[in-house]
Design a protein that fits this description.
about 75% helix; mainly alpha; 21 helices
Length: about 375
């Protein structure tokens, strides 16, 4: 009898006996994310660990994402505290050249305009709650809206502070839409511009001195401290990484931030985000709302950047190609590359990549500023 009882206990503790339908569905979702990363090349640096983390967290009994599990411990240490996104921003700063923005500072307006999608989507989430049966709090609406900035670490940072239960869905939406930039943006660009506008050539950017590049992160940080202290964690991390890059006296630190440091944090961040894809919190009506609102935020941000560039052409003698406004969504550098490709379709001699990098890196700052505004209001 003891042997039979032992075998019965073993049988009831297997995955086959204990796994739920929801967990099966989420394991399939995790596998799809891994396929998109490997088979399609969609944001593989994060979708692959997110997908694998999603599979691990839905394994029954193991408790990998529990408080005492590996992913649960990493979540408590790095994501619930907001540390991982800030460390990622240090690496991003070290990888970013703000030269195009410094050379053509008015393109910062295009990066700011692209953040309009964030606040439009916040209103959309409130309307869905009011009229469509969704259950989004104001904090949830703010977290969903930040997807429109197409900045994964910022979206994760805001969600970890305001809506930890929605973190998995928000992170997947943010990185999915970043990966789909080459598919989502070109139709919007062509819809809102004429072929002649897409063919506009722009003058070569002026050289930017080393002193300007060193002063830029310090000035941005000072402005942030004076005007929007709640954005200082994100802006400060970004500007520290950039100062390390531009200083020229700490090459070892710069190379570490650009390589080993950001790679290690990316692995842990992806796995921990995946740990929030458990069936109980992900398989809800609100997840569908997040995906739809995230797409709307991204599309609106693209459109407002283009429309502001068109307005600038009417008000200024110096013409800009309105396509570069689409790069303000801050999916660096993919959005700038898409702008360059669409511009060359209209004019093969048109080289917009460096011009698009101005609003592109401005969008990174803009999304961090928007995050600071939301945190100051809703936290």
């Amino acid at each position: 009898m003891n042997i039979l009882h032992t075998f019965a206990n073993i049988a009831t503790s297997t995955g086959i006996a204990t796994i739920s339908l929801g967990q099966v569905v989420m394991i399939v979702v995790g596998a799809i994310l891994i396929y998109l990363a490997i088979g399609r090349g969609f944001e593989p640096l994060l979708l692959l660990p997110i997908g694998f983390g999603g599979i691990l967290t839905n394994i029954p009994i193991a408790g990998i994402a529990g408080a005492d599990g590996l992913l649960g411990i990493l979540y408590s240490a790095g994501l619930s505290t907001g540390i991982f996104p800030l460390l990622i921003f240090m690496g991003v700063g070290a990888l970013t050249d703000f030269g195009p923005l410094i050379a053509h500072p008015k393109t910062a307006l295009l990066g700011a305009a692209a953040q309009f999608g964030i606040f439009a989507t916040l209103i959309g989430a409130i309307l869905l709650t009011e009229y469509a049966g969704f259950d989004f709090r104001l904090q949830d609406a703010a977290s969903i809206g930040i997807i429109g900035g197409a900045d994964g670490p910022t979206a994760i940072f805001v969600a970890s502070q305001l809506s930890p239960d929605l973190l998995g869905a928000i992170a997947v939406a943010a990185y999915s839409y970043m990966a789909l930039v080459p598919i989502i943006q070109p139709p919007i660009m062509r819809l809102l511009t004429t072929k002649d506008e897409r063919a506009i050539t722009m003058e070569q950017l002026r050289p930017v001195s080393k002193l300007e590049k060193i002063l830029f992160p310090l000035i941005v940080l000072a402005l942030c401290i004076l005007l929007l202290p709640t954005a200082t964690p994100l802006i400060g991390s970004l500007m520290f990484g950039n100062l390390v890059r531009e200083a020229g006296v700490v090459d070892r630190l710069s190379k570490t931030l650009q390589n080993e440091f950001i790679n290690i944090v990316t692995i842990m961040l992806g796995l921990v985000v995946g740990s929030k894809l458990d069936a109980e919190t992900f398989l809800r009506l609100e997840t569908l709302g997040i995906l739809l609102l995230g797409l709307a935020a991204f599309s609106i941000g693209t459109a407002t950047g283009i429309l502001l560039a068109k307005l600038m052409n009417r008000l200024s003698r110096e013409r800009v190609n309105p396509l570069i406004g689409a790069a303000g969504v801050s999916a660096v550098p993919m959005a700038a590359r898409v702008v360059s490709r669409v511009g060359q379709e209209a004019n093969r001699s048109n080289h917009l990549l460096m011009h698009a990098m101005g609003p592109n890196v401005a969008g990174v700052i803009g999304s961090a500023v928007a995050a600071g505004v939301l945190l100051s209001v809703f936290l």
